[in-house]
UniProtKB/TrEMBL annotation:
The keyword Transferase does not apply. Keywords: Redox-active center, Signal. Residues 4-153 form the Thioredoxin domain. This is Thioredoxin family protein. Residues 1-20 form the signal peptide. The keyword DNA damage does not apply.
Length: 153
């Protein structure tokens, strides 16, 4: 009986692994550089480390095969930590997080690029057109079925 349960558990686990898909994330600087070589819109996920709905979006929505496949095929995908310490170069201006504290747990200082985007809540998703212009945000957690119609180009 134990062997049967173990075999069933392994079979279900391997089926779940086949269903999960990875979005090919990059930085905004990398995506903007890629746009210069091949024009394509950018899909950007703005998240924080402490945000529960952001983690749900990663686990439930971005790993859904249909969503990951669509984003990978039609966008340059960017993952941006709204409270991180990365440097972003956008439209000739450098954005940083000068008050970032690497020792701090939980909420941290807000990145200047987050302020530029006027992020209203987390998670927020932004689409940049093929020329790098920012469009309206998609704010909050969305299931795969809710998100797909909003990102179809």
């Amino acid at each position: 009986m134990k062997k049967l349960l173990l075999a069933l558990f392994l079979a279900v686990g391997s089926m779940a692994a086949v269903q999960a898909q990875e979005v090919k994330w990059m930085t905004l600087d990398q995506a903007l550089a890629a746009q210069k070589k091949k024009a394509k819109p950018i899909f950007m996920d703005v998240y924080t480390d402490w945000c529960g709905p952001c983690k749900m979006l990663d686990k439930n929505t971005f790993q859904a095969k249909e969503v990951a496949d669509y984003i990978n095929a039609n966008y340059y995908a960017v993952k941006f930590n709204a409270e991180g310490d990365s440097e972003v170069n956008y439209k000739g201006k450098k954005y940083t997080n000068p008050k970032f504290d690497a020792t701090r747990k939980g909420r941290n200082a807000v990145h200047d690029f987050t302020m530029f985007l006027k992020v209203q809540g987390y998670p927020s998703m932004y689409i940049f057109d093929s020329k790098g212009e920012v469009k309206s945000p998609i704010v909050g957690y969305h299931t795969p079925e809710q998100l797909l119609p909003l990102i179809k180009v």
